[in-house]
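Dear colleague,

Following up on Tuesday's group meeting, I ran the structure prediction for the two-component complex that the binding team flagged. I've pasted the input sequences exactly as they went in, so you can double-check that nothing got truncated or mislabelled along the way. The structure tokens for the whole assembly follow below. Feel free to forward this to whoever is handling the docking comparison.

Inputs:
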Amino acid sequence: MMNCAEALSLVDFWEAEGKFPESRLVDFRDHITSCGPCANRFGGMLQLIERDAGAVNALATSPSDKIADSLSSSVLRKLASTPRNRVWIPAVAAAAAAAIFVLGIGLGVLVGRGGQSDSISVSFVLDAPEAREVSLVGDFNQWSSGTNAMYRASPEKPWEIKVILPKGRMYVYNFVIDGKLWVDDPTASEKIDDGFGGKSSLLRL
Amino acid sequence: MGKEAAIDEAIRKTLAGDREAFRVIVDTYGSRMIAFCRTRLASEEEARDAAQEVFIRAWSAISGFRLGESFASWLFAIAANHVRSRFRFRAFENRKMSAAAAEIAVLPPIDPSEEASESLRSEELRRAVAKLSSDLRGSVEFYYFAGLSISETATALKIGEEAVKSRLFRARKKLRLALESTQPGRASGGNLK
């Protein structure tokens, strides 16, 4: 039978190393099932510990079987009407991504006069010669990468797009390179956390 | 045929346009995909819808996948972008300027009478993960919820493996602190056996 000191020692080891001996997992589970203080103390971490012990591939916060089982059927039904995309999307490769980040140079936001007095024409520009496609996403287009595809006159030219935006507001935006890489505008003076460790750019009009 | 070989075979057939082969991919990654999407979305149903959309986008874009690369990294990188778009749309709708604040706000409240249940523990864990800084949170979601390896997580996040290990180490410390402090018996100090 495992005691509290052993359980604590194993949790300390797990926290430091990200590992938990699988051979001790059953005893650990039994202990926190029968020991109230340890259940309170370590119960919330059990799913993480099980993953690091190799007992499961991913956390046991998985969906109900009913929801998961119907997924493949509904996806397969949708595929019947979904075309295959011939647009090149890069495989995930750190070197390629880094190159694009280095070469993706924001050339700034050019603000002009809009067709309506309460709106302004804004040009978004990004120099990303390695990119196959670039789109502008932001709170003004519901973060949809299919709404504002950017264009370039030739492979040597930067990507650009003009958008009419109402004045007197603040906007949050990113560029999406090749449907995959979200980058902030390097020239933006204000940025916020994008929630995944990256940044989004701010534009005040 | 082993599980990994079956997945590789399914990917090859999918690249050739075989829809039934794609079913193997959905069956293999479906539960993990829903769990991954669930970390950022408000309900299991919404996560399921998002997972369905991710698989459809993956089917549409699979010609861009290169054999020999990590398929899981490729697939979950698409998922991360998709969930980010959905989350951003939610934040836009809610007129929230703080992404983190909106994210936490959509989580349902805890019912104290059910705190001992497994699902509530999962909910507490999701809440604790949601409060991590974005760099730690991303690593936790890819590694623990999507079930990617350290190497696959590094590839999906475009960072080095040592950086992933460092982030997971810091995340474990913060999560332990947060989860221990949420437990009812902890504040007064329980008697250890």
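Chain B touches chain A through 91 residues (CB under 8 Å).

Cheers,
M.
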